[in-house]
Design goal:
This protein has 291 residues and is α/β, with parallel strands linked by helices. It folds into 2 domains: 2-125 and 177-242, Rossmann fold, CATH 3.40.50; 127-175 and 246-283, no CATH class. The chain is 48% helix and 9% strand. It has helices at residues 2-12, 15-36, 58-65, 68-72, 105-109, 126-140, 147-155, 159-173, 175-183, 204-214, 221-230, 233-237, 259-269, 272-275; strands at 47-52, 77-79, 96-101, 117-123, 191-195. Strands 2-3-1-4-5 form a 5-stranded parallel beta sheet, with helices on both faces. Helix 8 (159-173) runs parallel beside helix 13. Mean pLDDT is 90; it is low at 240-245.
Length: 291
């Protein structure tokens, strides 16, 4: 009952009201962090930039970098640009972790930065991104931007037609081009790429440590274990604050893509799957029934 109420509120409250409420919540949490948490070590970097495409665990990243443990060992407060009507290429405030910057590599390059910074981009198998986008848009995502109209369009179509429609929509928005831009960017030690499947999967502890260290945040082993347990994918999926998590399983696309859907996807994305290092369709084992 509570979950249904939260979902209804998320889907029906005006976007301006929801954004203002989230900004107030973030600012209140940051005040509590400043006064309640003693910073023991500081990151060597003035700013951290989290860049991503949608449906690549952005809520997970937000929760992680808003945790008191991470603040204690970094001194960096979370900042969500969308809550502040941020416009590209404005620079986020210094001393913050700028979260959920949905930018191509080329646009990120033009954002003014301090002398010391680090950035990371989280990507995911684009086929799973399509499926996750489909169910999120149809059922759980808040009514921001073009979501209400897209939800109306998807609701009037069978799943197959809806997935094909969504592939075209994502292609038109530039989602696949943005993924390609990061995958083909020149190597830069200040920027690291992370696969969604790693920090949320079996290698979570190692990937968490690698992610935080890239950001100049060294977390002691006991605290790292706490973070790993606190932000396990299963636990996050049951959290009302991020209740739009569905399966989150790598390869779930196999349960939804048929030949026609895959052809539409391949036409829109070209060699993106291989470029990102994921197996081609013929290389993926057939999923077990009911998986």
């Amino acid at each position: 009952m509570i979950n249904r109420t939260v979902t209804f509120a998320r889907q029906n409250a005006p976007e301006s009201l929801r954004v203002a409420a989230r900004r107030a919540q973030l600012e209140a949490r940051n005040v509590r962090l400043r006064f309640a948490v003693q910073v023991t070590t500081r990151s060597a970097f003035d700013n951290i930039y989290h860049c991503a495409a949608r449906k690549t665990a952005s809520q997970w990243i937000k929760a992680l970098f808003g945790d008191p443990i991470v603040y204690r060992h970094s001194g960096l407060l979370p900042y969500v640009p969308r809550y502040y009507k941020w416009q590209h290429p404005e620079p986020p405030p210094r001393g913050r972790v700028a979260l959920s910057m949905f930018l191509s590599y080329q646009k990120f390059e033009t954002v003014p930065k301090p002398d010391t910074w680090r950035a990371f981009f989280v990507y995911r198998d684009p086929r799973d991104m399509v499926v996750s986008n489909y169910f999120s848009t149809l059922k759980t995502h808040g009514p921001m931007g073009d979501i209400p109209e897209l939800r109306r369009q998807l609701a009037g179509k069978p799943e197959k037609d809806g997935l094909i429609h969504l592939i075209g929509h994502l292609n038109k928005k530039g989602t696949f081009r943005a993924l390609r831009s990061w995958a083909t960017a020149a190597e830069d030690e200040r920027i690291a790429l992370f696969r969604y499947e790693d920090p949320t999967g079996a290698r979570q502890a190692e990937e968490l440590d690698r992610l935080l260290r890239h950001c100049g945040i060294v977390v002691p082993p006991d605290d790292l274990t706490t973070l790993r347990d606190r932000y396990s994918f299963d636990r996050m999926r049951g959290n009302q604050a991020v209740s739009h998590y569905r399966k989150g399983a790598a390869g779930d696309w196999q349960n939804h893509f048929d030949d026609d859907i895959y052809q539409a996807f391949a036409t829109a994305t070209g060699n993106l799957i291989e470029l990102l290092g994921y197996p081609a369709r013929h290389q993926v084992p057939t999923p077990r029934q009911g998986s």
